[in-house]
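User: I've been going back and forth on whether these two constructs are worth ordering. Before I decide, could you fold them both?

Assistant: Sure. I'll take them in the order you sent them. The first construct and its structure tokens:
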Amino acid sequence: MLKERVITGLSGWTMVAILVAVPVAGIAGLVALANPEPPPIAIAGLILLVLDAIGWRGLTIVNPNTARVILLFGRYQGTIKTAGLRWVNPFTMRRFVSLRIRNFESGKLKVNDHIGNPIEIAAIVVWRVVETAEAMFEVNDYEHFVHVQSESALRAMSAIFPYDAHVEGELSLRGSVTEVSQRLAQEIQERLSSAGVELIEARISHLSYAPEIANAMLRRQQATAIIAARQKIVEGAVGMVEMALDLLSEKKVVHLDEERKATMVSNLLVVLCGDRDAQPVVNTGTLYQ
């Protein structure tokens, strides 16, 4: 695998000064060519002018957070990351590579979660190039490669977790945001390492059930929420009944046998756990028939 080799090239401003001064000698040589028998220095002056014209092609501008990959007759020479005006061999090819942080949002993918439910999912991926040689020569188009491999990783990660946790403590796409993002980042980075790309962040941007099962799953979520609420209500009602019986016994307000306690417990639970407001009935007689 081709690895990045950082080079600096020569100072562009120094070479500009040289390339400006060289034509002075070249022009003097051209003047000498006008003589019937030009001296050898005239030929040298002409050669200098030709070399000077070629030398200007070696100047290249490197902007901040960008790089220039240098190729000489098909061979990789190195990468210039030093910002400013630089000079390299004028016969080389210089390819531009951006080192800036970039991001994109994947399309909404229709996949199956861990238990086979069809869902729609999308993600935001933040990345940048860190190895210019790998990015340029190991893959055909590193930007397209990042997009395709990110979607592939998103599909693979979706099959690991269920949409919702059905067991307490189970990781899920909807409820375990941090863990899911970490796993997604791991899946993407494994695929992008060969392209010289570093993943900075990956997170879910869209998550929903597929339209064909959305209504059924909504009813299921509602039923789950109702059951959870009922459990809390029953737990609270039992505690309140227990406290009422303890206080009645402690303060000796009334003495109830086991049968009357059972009746009282039944009535209190009906009042506390019912969906509707209870209609009180005032008993003006005795508890015992």
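The second construct, handled the same way:
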Amino acid sequence: MRRFVFLLIALAACAMVAGRSDAAFAESQFGDANAEPAPFNPQMAALMSMLIQPRHAKLGLAGKAENWPLAAYMLKELRQGFAVVSKAVPRWKGLPVPDLFEAAVGHPITVLDAAIKLQYRSQFDEGYERLTVGCNACHGTTDHSFVVIKVPDASAFPNQEFVPKR
């Protein structure tokens, strides 16, 4: 009996779909499939989540593993991420974003650069901690103190090796 009821429901659903016009069927909850896409204009939070936070984490994991070539690369990527965000969002809550970034992370990035070049782990750890504190200070300046960044204690990137090849 259950199979018969299920079969009737399935046949009714098929009949409903077959009875729809092509125009009605082509309509989508996502809008017109032939429309021009809107320009990509991410907001500050999206840019920080896409460009800054993963690079911050990867930089920390590379330094912890003493993978200095990867750390140098991630520091370069982090700098470029800050430049992209500064161009995309020149002002945030009335404040110039490049100035916010420079005040928050300028000096720690210089310390990190030197530590990576010298392959000096304790200086790297100190610079990375200062970078992280700078990130959180910037969040506080922009009324986002609830966004707390920390030194990663585990990798969120299971498909990437951080230990250097020897």
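Notes on the second construct follow. The chain has six helices and two strands. The mean pLDDT is 85.
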